């Protein structure tokens, strides 16, 4: 039994930006943004909507390759604005919201990332954060001239070194290094500028950095992943861990383990945040949200005679044949739009029964009910395993409050089925409900991303060492 009472404080609330939507066919919705050619406009409008709602930050993931098959699985990966370009553009448009950009610790260089992030942090007034990607994918590697990929152990060791170099370079200039004494002609105090002289197994940098120290000292570092190596990297080096536990019980257990690892690393768990993703489909009423979900289900391309004859190569899990295997019953001659009969549902496998529960929670549909289950709904539930929540503002807020009060997470990154209608619905309907419950602040209380997250300013290591002496 999960304890869900007693915890105080505010939820961290961010948005993961996928301009073509997090639902595989979301771009087809009549209210959706539907082409990367118009990304500047949707990035601008999304950022302004998020800032008006008071969200803590916008998160920009990345993938360093593309392929035609993404059209049906992850269309937002086909072509997208590079994360540092996106946050630079939005830093000039917004005033308060944080902006988190992803880089690859395998293919980027620490000096370049340190310089770019310090510059953007200065220009934005202290609002940038960095997501360290350690992923391994051969197509991406070959885009950088690599013919193989590092082992998991090497990739995470390299990421650790990368973060060490970043923080060392950010501390090159002490905060009072620029004297700017016009009378004497002294611009800097040279004793406040420090080389790094870092030499590691994977990275090296002499320094010092030719950019002033970021206003935040160290921009917040994000690590994503639930593996033990990801948790170790996050607990030792990051400020935020992004996870995706499937149940609240697993989330509570993981939350306690990670916070213990942070403490064992000699760090304050109170200066660490754990977030998970959600994909809310929301309307004024639960029934209205079901209608939106049903429409999204209808837009998902499934294998049929037309797609086969047209030579369309859909993912293997988009066919009635794949559904038959999952349900454990023969479905020869069945059409996707047909209603599932009760006598057949009674013979479903355990996975099939689980999918029936998923369909009911997402759409309110039941076998034999007024809103019957169709094979299409089962097939889409099987094919799309995103953390989907469907309901009214109260329904969505109930879920967020339950997870937060149970100490399962510190907050959430919101995925939108499509931009901008569903994202605007979340900010207009769910955020005020969270504010009404005292779970989310009604306005920004600070100016930097570290302020929004409740993280302390990082002191310059050289100044701290001198003060200690």
Could you explain how this protein is built, in words?
The protein folds into two domains: 12-170 and 198-283 and 388-468, Alpha-Beta Barrel (TIM Barrel); 301-383, no CATH class. The chain is an alpha/beta fold and 469 residues long. The mean pLDDT is 95. The radius of gyration is 24 Å and the shape is elongated. The protein has 18 helices and 13 strands.
Throw out a few tags for this protein.
469 residues; alpha/beta; TIM Barrel; 8-stranded parallel β-barrel; two-stranded antiparallel ribbon; elongated
Brief synopsis:
The chain is an alpha/beta fold.
- Total number of helical segments? 18
CATH architecture of the largest domain: Alpha-Beta Barrel
| Lateral strand order in the biggest sheet | 1-2-3-4-9-10-11-13
What is the approximate shape? elongated
What quaternary form is this?
single chain
Strand content: 5-15%
Broad structural category: alpha/beta
Per DSSP E runs of 2 or more residues, the count of β-strands stands at: 13
* Overall tally of domains: 2
Low-confidence stretches: none
What is the fold named in CATH at topology level of the largest domain?
Answer: TIM Barrel
């Amino acid at each position: 039994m999960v304890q869900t009472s007693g915890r105080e404080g505010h939820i961290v609330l961010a948005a993961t930006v996928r301009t073509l939507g997090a639902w595989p066919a979301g771009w087809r919705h009549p209210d959706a943004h539907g082409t990367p050619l118009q990304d500047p406009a949707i990035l601008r409008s999304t950022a302004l909507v998020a800032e008006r709602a008071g969200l803590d930050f916008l998160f920009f993931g990345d993938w360093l390759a593309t392929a035609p098959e993404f059209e049906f699985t992850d269309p937002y990966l086909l072509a997208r604005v590079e994360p540092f370009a996106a946050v630079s553009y939005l830093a000039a448009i917004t005033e308060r919201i944080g902006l988190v950009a992803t880089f690859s610790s395998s293919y980027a260089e620490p000096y370049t990332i340190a310089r770019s992030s310090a510059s953007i942090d200065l220009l934005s007034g202290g609002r940038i954060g960095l997501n360290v990607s350690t992923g391994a994918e051969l197509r991406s590697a070959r885009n950088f001239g690599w013919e193989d990929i590092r082992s998991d152990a090497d990739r995470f060791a390299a990421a650790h070194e990368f973060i060490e170099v970043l923080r060392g370079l950010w501390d090159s200039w002490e905060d009072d290094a620029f004297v700017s004494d016009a009378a004497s002609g002294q611009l800097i105090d040279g004793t406040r500028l420090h080389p790094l002289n870092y030499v590691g197994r994977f990275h090296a940098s002499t320094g010092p950095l030719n950019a002033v120290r970021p206003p935040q000292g160290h921009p917040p570092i994000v690590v994503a992943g639930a593996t033990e190596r990801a948790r170790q990297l996050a607990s030792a080096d990051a400020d935020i861990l992004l996870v995706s536990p499937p149940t609240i019980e697993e989330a509570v257990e993981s939350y306690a383990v990670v916070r213990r690892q942070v403490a064992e690393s000699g760090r304050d768990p109170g200066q660490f945040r754990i977030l998970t993703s959600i994909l809310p489909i929301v309307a004024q009423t639960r029934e209205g949200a079901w209608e939106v979900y049903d429409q999204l289900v209808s837009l998902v391309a499934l294998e049929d005679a037309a797609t086969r004859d047209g030579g369309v190569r859909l993912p293997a899990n988009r066919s009635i044949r794949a559904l038959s295997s999952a349900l454990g019953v023969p479905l020869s001659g069945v059409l996707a739009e047909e209603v599932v009969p009760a006598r057949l549902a009674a013979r479903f496998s355990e996975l099939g029964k689980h999918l029936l529960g998923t369909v009911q929670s997402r759409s309110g549909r039941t076998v034999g009910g007024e809103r019957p289950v169709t094979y299409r709904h089962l097939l889409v539930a099987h094919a799309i395993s995103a953390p989907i929540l469907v309901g009214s503002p109260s329904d969505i807020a109930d879920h967020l409050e339950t997870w937060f009060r149970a100490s399962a997470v510190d907050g959430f990154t919101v995925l939108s089925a499509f931009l901008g209608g569903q994202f605007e619905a979340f900010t207009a309907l769910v955020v005020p409900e969270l504010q009404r419950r005292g779970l989310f602040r009604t306005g920004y209380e600070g100016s930097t991303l570290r302020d929004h997250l409740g993280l302390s300013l990082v002191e310059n290591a050289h100044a701290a060492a001198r003060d200690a002496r």
